[in-house]
Amino acid sequence: MRQGALTLARHVRSGEMSAVEVVEESLAQIKAKDGRISAFNAVLGERSRRRAAEIDRQVALGEDPGPLAGIPVALKDNICASGVPTTCSSRILEGWLPPYDATVVTRLQAAGAVIIGKTNMDEFAMGSSTEASATGPTRNPCDLSRVPGGSSGGSAAAVAAGMTPLALGSDTGGSIRQPAALCGVVGAKPTYGRVSRYGLVAFASSLDQIGPIAADVADAALALEVIASHDPMDSTSIPDPCESLLAAVERDVGGMRVGLITDLLGEGIDHDVTERVEAAARALEESGAEVQEVSVPSISYGLSAYYLIAPAEASSNLARYDGVRYGLRVKGENTEKMNVATRTAGFGDEVKRRIMLGTFALSVGYYDAYYKKAQKVRTLVIRDFEAAYRSCDVLLAPTSPSVAFAFGERIDDPMSMYYSDVCTIPSSLAGHPAISVPFGTGAGGLPVGVQILAPPLREADMFAAAAALERA
Amino acid sequence: MSTQARGGGSIQAQAGGHEWEIVVGLEVHAELATRTKLFSASPNSFEGDPNTNIDPVCLGLPGTLPVLNVQAVELAIRVCLALNSEVRPSEFARKNYFYPDMPKDYQISQYDKPIGVGGFLELPSGKKVGIVRAHIEEDTGKSTHVGGTGRIDGAEYSLVDYNRAGVPLLEIVSQPDLRSAAEAREYVSELRAVLLAVGASDGKMEEGSLRVDANVSVRRRGERLGTRCEIKNMNSLRSIGRGIEYEAKRQVALLSAGESVSQETRHWNESEGRTLTLRGKEEATDYRYFPEPDLVPLRPSSEWVESIRSALPELPRFRRARLAAAVGRDASSVALFVERNQDTLAIEAVAAGADPAAVLKHLEHNLSEGTGRLTAGAFAELIAMESKGELTSNQVKATLAEMAATGADLKSVLADADYQAVSSSRLSSVLDELVAENPVEWERYREGDSRERKKLQGFFTGKIMRLTKGQADGRAVAELLRKRAQV
Amino acid sequence: MSSEHRISIEDVAHVAKLARLHLSDEEILRFTTQLADVLDHASDIESLNTEEVEPTSHPYPLSNVFRSDDPGPTLSSEEALSQGPEVEDGQFRVPPILIRSQQSGAAAMRQ
Question: In whole angstroms, what is the distance from residue A364 CA to residue C43 CA?
C-alpha cells in the first residue's frame, strides 16, 4: 500500500478516495505478492468489496463511517469473524465456521474497517517462526529465505509486504512484537485486559492479548485506539478507558525517563541487535529523554516461568478439540479412541509438545514444583518491574535476540526456538504493554526491532517513546 | 462438628456378635434457580428440544469466555447463610477431564477456595450435621445411549444434548456425621426444604435438580473410621435410603468375613437393588486443577452478604415449629404446608377462628396448586359456613378455587354461584315439597324392602338435584332422606 | 536433578494418555528428551526462594466481575449442529462411551 491507514482513512472519509479503490489496491497487492509470501490463509475478496461499497455509500450520504473508514485489516487466523473459516493454522479446526464475531471484529467494523482476510500463524500461536503451520510457512518479505517470526508471522509479513495497511495479531509471549521486529514493522501488545479476548481462540488465557501490526507507529496507535475498550464479555477486560494514543504519538519526550534493561543486553543477544538498542538509547537521549541503565533481575527466570505457565493453560484450552462438536473428527470405535485419533491427527508436533509439557506441569506431584512455582516467579517479575518503574517511565530492550533466521534453523530444537522470545516474555508475564519499533538494520541488512516497555495502562507513554524513535 | 443424638440414628446391623455403625457423608448437587446459565445468557432450562437453550459460550466454542452470573452467586450465598457457613472470598478453578457432554473438556468449579466453608444443618430430630464446604460449579450436558439396552454399557452410540451445559450448580458437602440411611434421607429432605425456602433451587430430585452422592463406611462401634466407598446414581429419597442400606450391609458382610473394603466409587443400580464398582482408587483421575484464568476472584463485600442475610426468609424448621404450635400438631406432620408456603395463611386462618383440622385439610387437598389470593379471613369464614352445613364440600372446594384465583370476597363468590340455594334448610324445604307431591313414592321408600328403597332413593335424589340445579351435595341428600324417613 | 530424572518415558506415556494423544515409540523417546530439555532449563527457578511469594494467576488485579441474570440471544440448534462432524435427531452423535474409562462422577448419573 502506498499510504498508511491514517492517511487513507482521512481520504475515504473526505471522499477524496473511495473505499472500493483502497480495498481493490489491497486485493491487487495480495494477488501480486502472496503467491511468494503465503501470508494469508484466506482472502475475503467478495466480502471486502461489498463492505467497501457500503462504506462508500455511507460517505455519499454524508455519514462518517469512522476512523478506519475503508481500511483493510487482516486478522490473524485465531480471531473469529462470523461465518469466516477460523483455523488457527491447524488441521483440527478444518472447516469450522464460527457463528459469532470477536469483539475486536465488531469494533473494527463499527469504525469502518474492512476485514480483508485471515493470516497464517504458528499452529494455535505456538511458535516463533510461522513454520509450525499446518498450511506451510510464511516467508519474510525482507528475505524470502528467512522466517517472518511468529506466531503472528502472516500478519507481520502482510503489512511488511504492503498487502494491507493494518493487521491484528495476538501476543502470548511475543507473538506480535517478534514477527514485527523480524519483518521491519511496528507491533504493539497492550496491557493485559486492554483489548477484549472474546473471540480470540485461546492459547494461554492469562497471557494472550490482541494487538495491532502496522507500517508505522501512528497507524498502530490508531488501530489500538479502535480496538481497546471495556468488554462485558471478557471478565478480565479492564474497565478504565484508554488515553488517546494518537495524541501521544505527537508528544515530545523531553524529560521522559527511559531505562535501558541491562539484563537483556550482552550474552545471548546478537551483537548487531545490541548495537541497535544502544543506538536507540542515544536517539532517545537526543530527543530530550533521560536514559539510565536499570536491572530487572528476575526477568532472567522469565523464559522458564513462561514455558511452564503457557503450556499448562494451553493443555486445558486445547482439550475441547475432541472431535465431538466441530472441526476434524477421525473415527474411533469408542469416544475415547475417537478423541485420541482426532487429536493425534489434528495437532502438529509443537502443539502436541506443549500440551504434553503443560499436562505434565499440572499433574499430581508436579503442580507445586512447576506450575505454582512459575506463578510465583511471575509475581517476582512484576515486583522487579515495579521497582524499575519507580525511577523510569518506560524501559528499552531488544525485541528479538537476533534478526530473522533461516527456515529450518531452529524448528528441530525447541529450546533454541523458545529462546527467540526471551526479550518479549517478561512483559507478557507481567501483563504490561510493550511495542516493537523498527530501528535500522543488522546482519545481512535485515531489520532490527527495539522494544519499548511501559507500566500497566501506560500505553500513551509507550507510544510517545516509540514515535520519537521512529522520528529519529 | 461433633455428632449429637446419635441414639436413634444407628442401624443395628448385627454380624458376628458385633454392633456396627454406618458412617455417611453426603455431597449434594443442587441446580440453582437462575434464569440464565452460570457463565452465559442462554436460558437455564433444559425442557424442549435438544440443543436449543445454548449459546457460543456454554457450547465452549473456541474464543468464547465465561462471565459469572451474579444471581447464581447471590443464591449460593443465601444457601451458605442458611447453613450457617462462612461466606469466603473464593476463586474458580478448572477441573480437567475428557467427557463428550462437557463442551470444553474441563469443568469450571471451585477447588481450594470455595464460597462457603463450615456451618451445619439442623435436622428435624434436632441433630446438627456439619457442613464441610459449598462451592459453585457448572453442570454438564446430557448423553442418551442408543442401541443395546439403552444404557451406557453396550450402547451402539450416544447422542449429546448441551441444553444443561453451564447450568449453575451448588455442591454442598457434609461432614461424615450421618449414622443411618434414614438419617441421610432426613438430611437430604431437610436440605431440600432449606433450598426451596431460600429460593435457591426447585429441589426436584426426579428431574435431577438435586443429585446426591454418598460416602459410606462402616465401623464397629467406638472404632476409628473404616474405608469408605462413594455411591453415585441415587436419584430419589427412596433410592438414597436403599443404596446406603445396601452398601452398608455389603461392607459389614465383607468385614465380618475377614475381608477388607477397598476404596472405590460404586454405582447404585436401582432395578437390581445393589451397588456395583464404577472405578477403583487406582483409577482415580488426575484432574489437574488450576486457577481459572478467564474468571477473576470473587470477593463478596460484607455489605452484600449482610443485605442478603437480612432479606433471608425464615428457615423451614422455625416455620414448622410455629405452624405446629398454631395448629396443635407436631412439627414433623406439618412439613408439607411449609414446603408449599401455606404456613402463614394457616396460622392466620386459625388466628381468625378457623378450625385447625379443617384449615389443614383444605390446604392439603383443595389448595395443593397454591393459595393464590385467598385471604385468611375469607378462608376462616368459609370454614365456619362449612361446619354449620351451609355449604357442601364441593361448594367449599369451588369457592376456595375461585377466591384463590381472583381474590374476590366470599360474599360475592357465593352470590354469583347462588350457593345459598342448597343450604341444609333449603334442602329440607325442597324435600318437603317433593314428599307432598309424591306421597305414594315416599310411602314406598319408607316401607319398601332394600331394593325398593334403593330405587326410590335414586328417584328422590334425582328430583332434588334437578330442583337445585345439581348444586346439592349427594351425601347431604342421602343423609336427609335417611333421617326424614327414619330408616 | 539430572535431566533424565526430570521426566521419564513412563511419565511421557502417561501424560499422553491424560491428554488423549497417541505417540509412537519414536515420538515418546523424542518428546522425553525434548521435554527433559525444557524442564532442565526451567530448573533455574528451583533455587529461587519463593516461600513468602503469592502466585500470580491474573496479571491485572480485578475482582467481582459479573453479568446480570438476563437471558440473551441463543444459537439455533441448526447453527450449532451445522458444525458437528456427526449429528442425529438434533444432537451430536458420538461413538459408544466407555463407562469404565469415564472420569466424571456426575457422568455416572446421566444414563
Answer: 18
Question: Does B199 reside within a domain?
Answer: yes
Q: Residue ranges of chain B with pLDDT lower than 50?
A: 1-16, 421
| A14 part of the active site | no
Which of B417, B446, B472 is the C-terminal boundary of a domain? B417
* Residues B428 and B362 grouped into a single domain: no
For B95-128, the pLDDT digits (tens) are: 999 999 999 999 999 999 999 999 999 998 889 9
Same domain, B85 and B208: yes
pLDDT tens for B320-354 read: 999 999 999 998 889 889 888 899 999 999 999 99
CB atoms B55 and C75 under 8 Å: yes
Phi/psi class of residue B483: alpha, beta or left (left: φ > 0; alpha: ψ in -120 to 50)? alpha
Domain that includes residue B245, residue range: 7-308
- Which residue of chain A has the CA closest to C30? A353
How far apart are alpha carbons A464 and A471 in whole angstroms? 11
- Per-chain mean pLDDT for chain A: 97
Q: What are phi and psi for residue C4, nearest 5 degrees?
A: -65, -25
Which range of residues forms the domain containing residue C12?
3-45
CB pairs under 8 A between A and C: 175
**Contact (CB<8Å) A206/C96:** no
Reply yes or no on domain A5-249 having CATH 3.90.1300.10.
Answer: yes
Q: Which of these is catalytic: A90, A151, A400, A402?
A: A151
Prediction ipTM score: 0.97
Q: Looking at B274, B292, B308, which one is the last position of a domain?
A: B308
Condensed to tens digits (0 to 9), the pLDDT of residues B123-153 reads 988 899 999 999 999 999 999 999 877 677 7
Q: Return all residues near C37 (Cβ < 8 A) that are at least 6 apart.
A: A414, A415, C3
Mapping DSSP to helix (H, G, I), strand (E, B) and coil, where does residue B462 land? helix
